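Ticket #4471: structure output looks truncated?

Reporter: J.K.
Steps to reproduce: submitted the chain below (157 residues) through the standard prediction queue, then opened the result file.
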Amino acid sequence: MLRCCDFLSRSFTPFPSPKIGRGQGMVYNGLMITVLVFGTFDKLHPGHRWFLSEAKKYGDRLVVVVARDHNVDQVKGHRPTQSEAQRLEQIQAVPEVNEARLGLDDYAKKEEIIEEIKPNVICLGYDQAPHFQSPDPAIQVIRLEAFHPEIYKSSKL
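Returned output as attached by the reporter:
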């Protein structure tokens, strides 16, 4: 099993390149491309919306896993401002998102959600630590650029 950081330490050509029109219902070798993102998405702001829009460019289907309140507390050391239900509802309303769900209750089993969704691509935010191991070496892990992090970062809003 490869660790996510193994992927991030190498240079990747995105699979497929967003420059060839992904996210418009196109199919790659007969397959729909699923993109998976994780996040807290507390106080949804333009930086989050930009992240989701950019992630969608890498595939046809964008699945968002919203972190559970108690897992945010465990990882970040504080609970989010908004409840997980509020954060999930806001993400479900974002047009680029095809599916949104809450993460697993047991943070230690986070790889199970990757195995269940079977993404082709996992996009990470510029400030996200890779807290998972990819169960499949064929999954492309891509770190996206920041969108004005000096302004649009939940901890600063």
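Triage note (M.O.): checked the attachment and the full token line is present. The helical segments are 4-8, 46-56, 69-76, 84-92, 111-117.
Status: closed, working as intended.
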